[in-house]
Q: What sequence folds into this?
């Protein structure tokens, strides 16, 4: 019964979605041909930490890609060109806006992350939109759900699956959502920017996923590896079926 | 007619497969504490009204229990309550669902089995405390205007205080 209810909810919400947001741009076969990516857990450079190599499992199946339009570039902010520990240069260097994608989940951070081989690391991934311009590209809902949190620089969406998706660094004054708002897959949340309160950061979307795992009656809510789910979502976006 | 129902049938099967591993966590309900659940001064309507259908124990830090400006977002099996306090925002969330049972990856098993009563973690721009109580997963987070220098987000002290003053204010089986 629960599945039927969930199905009806998804079915009818997808009908509503069409009227709430403009249709996605037509798929670009050239972009699809260009798109390439390193396997999950292969971080760059080796000093940037240890990823979960070989973990290609899609933990959040069938989510929509969190940036409305392609191209988008999933790669390191900290170790990319112009980043805090990256080669000297501009954060807007064109080489940061190129394929192949590189996983940056578990990239070196001081934060505890038991799922990372080092026990510490980045809890999500950083994604650049098409170009190095803030307040131009929309972050969108990856699934139907409710906005459970709007903070100073983060927005949380709790999907109908129970997963929580966190979007960081969106431009606060132009946010399209409020706390408690029901939201549909693909609906606009806010513009990708460099907002981190009074702390400086680069123009990008930090995106992470939390879900509950149950083993032998015990459970825990953890940040799951999002990379493979995003590769899958991006492929679908490029094929015109986001 | 067949053409109409075939995609519906396939979508239903796909959804069943996707969600086959998910569900609602069983919980052991705490003994009622009338002083906390029905205090002498009534809790703000924004709280009582929004959590009336919530089927898990609803905890909040006692310091904020009469804050009329709190934001409450709740469903049957989850809630998030947010308190604004100048340069930082405090939230507490409880969730009674699970998305994956016995994941294929052994690391998850280890993590679940090794988990502590409460775990304090510095996150991207936040400090958090995650804990499991009565079988439900809860998380307290503090988001700061200046995450790299504000002690609310760089030290565990503030979030520990919030954790230590949790009281149950509602929820029912």
A:
């Amino acid at each position: 019964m629960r599945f039927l209810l969930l199905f009806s909810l998804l079915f009818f919400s997808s009908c509503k979605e069409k009227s709430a947001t403009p249709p996605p741009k037509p798929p670009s076969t050239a972009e699809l041909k260009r798109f390439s990516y390193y396997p999950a857990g292969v971080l760059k450079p080796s000093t940037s930490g240890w990823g979960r190599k070989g973990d290609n499992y899609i933990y959040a199946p069938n989510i929509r890609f969190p940036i409305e339009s392609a191209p988008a570039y999933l790669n390191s902010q900290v170790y990319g060109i112009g980043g805090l520990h990256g080669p000297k240069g501009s954060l807007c260097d064109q080489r940061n806006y190129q394929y192949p994608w590189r996983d940056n989940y578990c990239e070196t951070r001081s934060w505890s992350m038991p799922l990372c081989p080092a026990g510490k690391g980045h809890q999500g991934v950083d994604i650049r939109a098409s170009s190095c311009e803030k307040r131009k590209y929309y972050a969108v809902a990856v699934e139907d759900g409710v906005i459970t949190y709007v903070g100073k620089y983060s927005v949380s969406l709790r999907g109908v699956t129970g997963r929580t998706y966190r979007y960081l660094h969106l431009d606060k004054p132009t946010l399209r959502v409020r706390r408690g708002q029901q939201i549909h897959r693909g609906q606009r949340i806010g513009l990708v920017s460099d907002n981190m309160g009074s702390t400086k950061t680069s123009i990008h979307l930090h995106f992470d996923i939390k879900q509950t795992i149950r083993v032998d009656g015990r459970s825990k809510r953890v940040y799951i590896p999002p990379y493979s789910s995003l590769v899958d979502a991006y492929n679908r976006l490029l094929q015109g079926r986001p | 007619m067949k053409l109409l129902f075939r995609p519906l049938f396939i979508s239903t099967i796909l959804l069943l497969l996707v969600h086959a591993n998910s569900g609602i966590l069983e919980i052991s309900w705490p003994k009622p504490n009338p002083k906390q659940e029905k205090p002498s001064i009534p809790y703000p309507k924004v709280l009582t009204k929004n959590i009336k259908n919530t089927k898990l124990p609803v905890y909040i830090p006692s310091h904020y229990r009469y804050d009329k400006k709190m934001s409450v977002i709740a469903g049957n099996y989850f809630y998030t309550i947010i308190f604004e306090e100048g340069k930082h925002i405090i939230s507490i969330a409880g969730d009674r669902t699970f998305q994956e049972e016995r994941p294929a990856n052994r690391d998850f098993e280890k993590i679940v089995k090794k988990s502590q009563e409460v775990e304090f973690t510095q996150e991207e721009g936040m400090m958090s405390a995650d804990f499991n109580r009565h079988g439900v997963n809860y998380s307290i987070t503090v988001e700061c205007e200046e995450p790299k220098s504000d002690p609310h987000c760089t030290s565990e002290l503030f979030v520990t205080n919030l954790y230590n003053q949790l009281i149950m204010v509602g929820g029912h089986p």
